[in-house]
TrEMBL record:
Keyword DNA-binding attached: yes
Chain ranges of the HTH tetR-type domain: 8-68
Protein's UniProt name: HTH tetR-type domain-containing protein
DNA-binding region, residues: 31-50
Pfam family, one: TetR_N
Organism superkingdom: Bacteria
C-alpha cells in the first residue's frame, strides 16, 4: 500500500489555492490554518515560502492581477477603445474573484501594476490628442475608476447591480429615481460608457 505523494508547494501554487479558498468562502474567512488544511499540510510548512499572512495576501493580489488579459492593439481602431478594453478586462477579473476582491484594497500590487501601466503609458504617448501633462491624470483616473467600480460591485451584498442606488425611493429621492428609470444600461455597459466619457474629457481639459 502506497501513500499519496506530498503536495509540491511553491509561492504560486499556495497563492492560487488561497485565492480559490477565498473565492469559495470569502476573504473574511481566510486564515493560514485553513489554507494549510486546504493544502493538506501543517501551517508551519507555509512559512518556508511566506513570511506571514500579509505576504500570502500580497501574492494573492498579484495572482488576481496576473489573471487580467492585456489587450492587443488593433490597427485603425479608435484610440480610446484600447483603454476601454484594458479597464474592462481588469474589472471582469476582479468580479470573477468578487469574494476575494477586498484583498486588493490593502494589498494592491503596485510593482506589478507598474509593468501594466508602462504598457498603458506607451500607448497613450502615441496619441497627440492627450498632452504629456495629462498622461498621469489619464492613467491614475483609469485605475481609480476601474478599481472603484469593480470593488463597489464586488462587495455588494445582493450581487451585481444594474441600479447602483438600490435603496433610493420615490418619496425621498424623486429626481434620482427618475434617472434610474431612464437608464437603459446594465452595470458593465454603464462602466464602459463611464470610461469612454472620462477618456473623451481628458483632452477637453486643455481646451481654453
Amino acid at each position: 500500500m502506497t501513500s499519496s505523494p506530498a503536495p509540491v508547494l511553491n509561492r504560486r501554487s499556495i497563492a492560487r489555492t488561497a485565492l480559490n479558498l477565498m473565492d469559495r468562502d470569502g476573504f473574511a474567512a481566510f486564515s493560514l490554518p485553513r489554507l494549510g488544511d486546504e493544502l493538506g499540510v501543517r501551517t508551519p510548512s507555509l512559512y518556508h515560502h511566506f513570511r506571514d499572512r500579509a505576504d500570502v495576501l500580497e501574492e494573492v493580489a498579484k495572482t488576481i492581477v496576473l489573471d487580467t488579459e492585456v489587450p492587443e492593439t488593433i490597427p485603425g481602431e479608435p484610440w480610446p477603445e484600447y483603454f476601454v478594453k484594458f479597464s474592462l478586462n481588469f474589472r471582469r477579473t476582479i468580479l470573477r474573484h468578487r469574494r476575494a476582491a477586498p484583498v486588493l484594497l490593502q494589498f494592491l500590487p503596485r510593482g506589478m501594476l507598474l509593468r501594466r501601466y508602462e504598457i498603458v503609458a506607451s500607448q497613450v504617448a502615441q496619441h497627440p490628442d492627450v498632452p504629456d501633462r495629462r498622461h498621469l491624470l489619464f492613467m491614475d483616473g483609469l485605475e481609480k475608476l476601474t478599481l472603484g467600480s469593480a470593488l463597489v460591485e464586488a462587495v455588494a451584498l445582493d450581487g451585481p447591480r444594474d441600479n447602483p442606488f438600490p435603496t433610493a425611493n420615490e418619496d425621498e429621492h424623486p429626481a434620482l429615481m427618475a434617472a434610474i428609470r431612464a437608464n437603459e444600461l446594465d452595470a458593465e455597459r454603464l462602466f464602459v460608457d463611464q470610461i469612454r466619457a472620462f477618456l473623451a474629457g481628458v483632452p477637453v481639459l486643455d481646451v481654453t
